[in-house]
Amino acid sequence: MASRRNGTLYLGVTSDLAGRAYQHRNALVEGFTKRHGCTMLVWFESYDDLQEARLRELQMKKWKRAWKIELIERENPQWRDLFETLF
């Protein structure tokens, strides 16, 4: 999730991406995303194994910001909100 292009980034894991993204988009969840206005789904990866997804999350949370931005821009150079693509 992002607040805007090159803005604040949030990284997390969920078993219901559409539902969780909806919560963030509508500021229904107290915490980081609400405080920082992270409402745009700009990148995601899918995993069949939740443990594998959590390991990837932990790995990426150690990344430099520039690496995360590079990953987003490689897959979504316009920083489009991908929420609608989930349906």
UniProtKB/TrEMBL annotation:
Gene3D superfamilies in UniProt: GIY-YIG endonuclease
> Entry's PANTHER family?
BSL5627 PROTEIN (PTHR34477:SF5), UPF0213 PROTEIN YHBQ (PTHR34477)
Q: Keywords in alphabetical order, please.
A: Endonuclease, Hydrolase, Nuclease
Q: Annotated Gene Ontology MF terms?
A: endonuclease activity
UniProt-listed PROSITE patterns: GIY_YIG
Q: Name one Pfam family in it.
A: GIY-YIG
Where in this chain does the record put each GIY-YIG domain? 1-70
Q: Which family does it belong to?
A: Belongs to the UPF0213 family.
- Spell out the protein name for this chain: Endonuclease
The organism is Sphingobium xenophagum
Fetch the InterPro entries from UniProt. GIY-YIG_endonuc (IPR000305), GIY-YIG_endonuc_sf (IPR035901), UPF0213_domain (IPR050190)
